Amino acid sequence: MFVARSIAADHKDLIHDVSFDFHGRRMATCSSDQSVKVWDKSESGDWHCTASWKTHSGSVWRVTWAHPEFGQVLASCSFDRTAAVWEEIVGESNDKLRGQSHWVKRTTLVDSRTSVTDVKFAPKHMGLMLATCSADGIVRIYEAPDVMNLSQWSLQHEISCKLSCSCISWNPSSSRAHSPMIAVGSDDSSPNAMAKVQIFEYNENTRKYAKAETLMTVTDPVHDIAFAPNLGRSFHILAVATKDVRIFTLKPVRKELTSSGGPTKFEIHIVAQFDNHNSQVWRVSWNITGTVLASSGDDGCVRLWKANYMDNWKCTGILKGNGSPVSGNSQQGNSTPSLGSNIPNLQNSLNGSSSGRKHS
Amino acid sequence: MHCHLDAPANAVSVCRDAAQVAVAGRSIFKIYAIEEEQFVEKLNLRVGRKPSLNLSCADVVWHQMDENLLATAATNGVVVTWNLGRPSRNKQDQLFTEHKRTVNKVCFHPTEAHVLLSGSQDGFMKCFDLRRKDSVSTFSGQSESVRDVQFSIRDYFTFASTFENGNVQLWDIRRPDRCERMFTAHNGPVFCCDWHPEDRGWLATGGRDKMVKVWDMTTHRAKEMHCVQTIASVARVKWRPECRHHLATCSMMVDHNIYVWDVRRPFVPAAMFEEHRDVTTGIVWRHPHDPSFLLSGSKDSTLCQHLFRDASQPVERANPEGLCYGLFGDLAFAAKESLVAAESGRKPCAGDRRHTIFFKRKLDSAEPFSGLASSALSVFETEPGGGSMSWFVDTAERYALAGRPLAELCDHNAKVARELGRNQVAQTWTMLRIIYCSPGLVPSANLNHSVGKGSSCGLPLMNSFNLKDMASGLGSETRLDRSKGDTRSDTVLLDSSATLITNEDNEETEGSDVPADYLLGDVEGEEEELYPLDPEHVHPEEPEYVLPQEAFPLRHEIVDTPSGPEHLQEKADSPHVSGSEADVASLAPADSSFSLLSISHTLYDSRLPADFFSVLVCDMLRFYAEQGDVQMAVSVLIVLGERVRKDIDEQTQEHWYTSYIDLLQRFCLWNVSNQVVKLSTSRAVSCLNQASTTLHVNCSHCKRPMSSRGWVCDRCHRAASTCAVCHHVVKGLFVWCQGCSHGGHLQHVMKWLEGSSHCPAGCGHLCEYA
Question: Which residues form the WD repeats (chain A) (predicted)?
Answer without folding.
Answer: 8-40, 274-306
